[in-house]
Amino acid sequence: MRNEYPDEFEAFSESHTRTWYRFGAGLDRALDLAPVYDRFGHLFGRDEIAALGEAAENGFGELDRKEARYLRAAAIEEHLSSATRELDEIIADRDAAETVAWEGETLPFHSLRSRIRNESRPEVRSELARRRERIVEGSNDVRAERFDKRAAAARSLGAVSTAALCSDVYGIDYTALRDRASVLLSETEASYAAALASLVRKRSTVDIGDATREDLLYALRFAEFDEAFPAHRMPMVYRDVFAGLGIKTGAQRNIRLDLEDRPSKNPRPFCAPIRVPDDVVLVVRPSGGYADYTALLHEGGHAQHFGFTSPGARVAFARAGDRATSETWAFLVQYLLLDDRYLREAFHIDPSSELRRLAAIEKCSVVRRHVGKLRYEEALHSGRLSLGSAPAAYVEELEGATMVRYPRSDALSDLDDGFYVADYLRAWALEVLVREHLKTRFGNRWWSSRAAGALLRELWATGSEYSADEIAAELGLGPICFEPLADDLRRGMAA
Hints:
By secondary structure, the protein is mainly α. The protein has 23 helices and 5 strands.
């Protein structure tokens, strides 16, 4: 590995993230990454990847080898992405241009899911979903070409499949993880089935046997609780949740809140770690509602993790590493919204309210959906499943996991490139262990403990140097397993 490589990779990451931030924040009308890759694309060629691999094997010390492993993983991901960049632009341009005429309105393709989620009439949800599916199908030929090109790029690096390459890069046996995570389906099956049938029939006015993904989206909208989660309180809730941990967000100069309401700003909060830890932006377009608050706290967890990363951390540990690590901290903050004590204190919501039970069903549904996705994606990326068989396998796995009907059209549009689905599952499993650890050490109201905040800042300071498994070991939590998460999901739905 060249001595200059980490600094050059940091410059790439800063430029890349800044470009995405400006587009997502509505500051730039178009996403133009071409100049970034024109300048830095050489960092992700085969020679650089080979040099990083050599350093990962033969570096002087363990930290040097880990640094090289993390940078190699990031370089390989960018190498694969470069093979499909033109196709990605075609898909993005098509999706951005597509609209649906409905009841005197012109609905952009990207707004259809939101419209469906808020539509009370089952027949309208179904029709809008069909129109959305036709648009997705219109680009599936390009998605299929994209999948083939990415798989070919993986083979060009000497891997027998994309799955094998990812296992080598991230050090995860995805077949074994698939089997271990499947316990989440069997252990929550009965509780989830009973809760879901009642939920869908009551809130979507359809029987569970006829329910679709769109009906479930509507059932989990929680519109009746919107008044408890107004848009104007979002910045204050963000401030207060971290104040209890001894973190004064108003005094943080390295973490900015972008609250401007621009027409083209992404409606969902997101975190942009432009330069870690010196320039981290939490982008929020306040609109309110429970879902926006979950996104706010999730991205707020990311922001604090990046913002408290030590300035002396190696670039690889600040900008790369195990993706499950940062997701764990984001989930830890997000799921305060499933805690009766926090809901009562922060939002004055009665603990007997149906909100927490509904939110627990939603979490179980999302977790189960990700298990189904992992099972599907592991088969597809390993080559055991052909593209021709993918739609049927996708429907089988997703319907089996969520217990509602899924469209065949999304088999490729709902596909993670690098097994990020697995990182979410590992992070969900670790979050339960960390949360219980904090409760044991600092009490049930751990979020109001400055000592808990000090421990979190100590962990955050390492950036992503430690993998999720290493964090579990460091805290004495034992190996990450999925049974505690299954228990947590069942308890939540029974509340």
